Amino acid sequence: MSLLTLENVATAYDTPQGRFRALEGVSFSVAKGETVGLVGESGCGKSTLGKTLMRLVPSDEGSIRLDGAEISQAQGRALMPVRRKLQMIFQDPFASLNPRHRIRRILTGPLKIHGVASRAERNRIAEEIVQRVGLPGDALDRYPHEFSGGQRQRIGIARALILRPQMIVCDEPVSALDLSIQAQIINLLAQLKAEYGLSYLFISHDLSVVRYFTDRVLVMYLGRIVESGPTRDVWNNPRHPYTRALIDALPEADRPREAAPLAGDLPGVQNLPGGCRFHPRCPYATDLCCRSEPLIDAKGGTHGFACHNPLPLKA
Amino acid sequence: MTAVLSVEDLSVHFGPARPVDRVSFHVNPRETLAIVGESGSGKSLTALSMMGLLPRNAKVSGRVLIQTPQGPADMLGLPEKRRRLLRGKQIAMVFQEPMTSLNPVHSIGHQIEEVLIAHENLDRAARRTRVLELMNLVRIPDAARRIDDYPHQLSGGMRQRVMIAMAVACRPRILIADEATTALDVTIQAQILQLLDNLRRELDVAVVLITHDLGVVSQWADRVVVMYAGLHVEQATPAQLFGDPLHPYSYGLLRASPRSDAGLTYRDAPLAEIPGSIASARGEVGCPFRPRCPAAREVCGTVQPPPIQHRGDRLVACHFPGILTQEERHVAAYA
């Protein structure tokens, strides 16, 4: 049963140079209890996708269904039930907590807005969650600046969790953290998922984290999903040359480095090339790629890719 | 082989705090040395000390000896005027954020040229030629057309190439890259690391990579210095470090990263955590890693282990070097 389903979603931004589509034709679904990864380079639209889901930016077209209900047009009070089901964890644990509020207010705020329980009960829930995410007992009466980056991310997680949502959008939740702290946060997210049966959309530019932490993965390039499928399949047998290049460029221990990294720069969505949007950087591009844009076909979460000349399928 | 740079017993104090604590290492000609550590490890302050660029309120002791044609010069002991002659000519640095390191109101050609004005005696036409040469050297495509572009017109990767062109303009012997690829996307990061390695060979320059990324270390470094809480805790080749980490911190870092070879996911096993954070080292006597160390004994709480030679060319600052690796092998043997 899919909890979240997107069909043909597009989001555009107005800029002084005109209106540009940061997302185009995005379709995928997330099942209950599933972790779906979203990878891509800066400017590919992965954060825009997270914001579109949260209705922080309006989508231009397409449908977004959460737990059976269409939410792509929801605003104002109609967003209240959406927020109870869908929450978000942000990248920067310094910028995403109000420095003038104590942790108690940060955590009980959502409960109050949603009219949950009495004041005493709200405090009890906050105390419980603070303990659950591994913060010290006196955390509720302290301010965000008194905590380290890793602890602040725990506060962000507690805030996302306090309404007991079914799904959390995690936008680069560990990118700002040191390696030794990253492992702590990922393990915490994994435990919480098992305990509460959560689904995650895990947005990250770090492929090694995505490979470890996700069941399925979506690869984005300049606003479109170019490859998707079970993480293991995509990792072991990438079919899109861009996915291959991302995996090859990943500096990892125990692996020799690639002889020739992908050439060229990421053009912005403002100057999108015609045909396949990856063709100017693609080593396998043909005439066809310059003329026609390949579209992805990944029905039911199977391995799909948007490429005219895919890399061979391994036996 | 004489070292092009040696750091001897370097300490940096800010009041009572000592974010860099008796660090020693050297850099060989044409090698890539990585200094790896997390935030608060003192790696960036070490790099700034090597450039003689510490803030005024920092008290610094020890020596940073740089080989020059006139013999070794101590960057820390020299007056500012003499330091300026070393920077650019002998040692240069590329920073993390190319957008804030470049001046937004000057063209990139002009900014590269400024380095030549400061250090070389060339006329205007010769400088312009040299700037184009440098832009070609760092593989900025279409250099003649881009020379009058401003930083905002370039991508992050191209801006970092401009920074590198400025750094190598006077043919230094040592190039420090302080998290120079951290802000870049992986495909661009690979391009820049490749460029630095090409320059190392073409220009006969030693590269010091300051990084938190173990993947970068394993793929590009000849030797690696691991720092923790201002201390130099381990020094080895990447093969030694990744195959047989001696310090429990190095061991923990390697185990905490989701590794490619294991193919494990969160459904199979949790990641190995290092409990606590680096801040727990503040004000401790003994080994600064002790509060987070699974192998700590009584002596670790009282005596700070100095870096000692281990099995020939390696250095480690631990009372029980290799203890976690040995335990792991022991467990594996009986599993």
UniProtKB/TrEMBL annotation, chain A:
Keyword Nucleotide-binding carried by entry: yes
GO CC annotations on file: plasma membrane
GO molecular function: ATP binding; ATP hydrolysis activity
Broad class of the protein's primary localization: membrane
GO annotation terms (biological process): peptide transport; transmembrane transport
PROSITE patterns: ABC_TRANSPORTER_1, ABC_TRANSPORTER_2
Record key words, sorted: ATP-binding, Nucleotide-binding, Transport
Domain called ABC transporter: residue spans: 4-247
Localization in the cell: Cell inner membrane
NCBIfam families for this protein: oligo_HPY
Family statement drawn from the similarity comment of this UniProt entry: Belongs to the ABC transporter superfamily.
Protein name: Peptide/nickel transport system ATP-binding protein
Species of the source: Paracoccus laeviglucosivorans
UniProtKB/TrEMBL annotation, chain B:
ABC transporter domain mapped to chain residues: 5-254
GO cellular component, one term: plasma membrane
Protein name in UniProt: Peptide/nickel transport system ATP-binding protein
Pfam family, any one: ABC_tran
Subcellular location: Cell inner membrane
Family: Belongs to the ABC transporter superfamily.
CDD domains: ABC_NikE_OppD_transporters (cd03257)
UniProt GO molecular function: ATP binding; ATP hydrolysis activity
InterPro entries: AAA+_ATPase, ABC_Ni/Peptide_Import, ABC_transporter-like_ATP-bd, ABC_transporter-like_CS, Oligopep_ABC_C, P-loop_NTPase
NCBIfam families in the record: oligo_HPY
Keywords on record: ATP-binding, Cell membrane, Membrane, Nucleotide-binding, Transport
Keyword Transmembrane helix: no
Bilayer topology term: Peripheral membrane protein
GO biological process: peptide transport; transmembrane transport
UniProt keyword annotation of ATP-binding present: yes
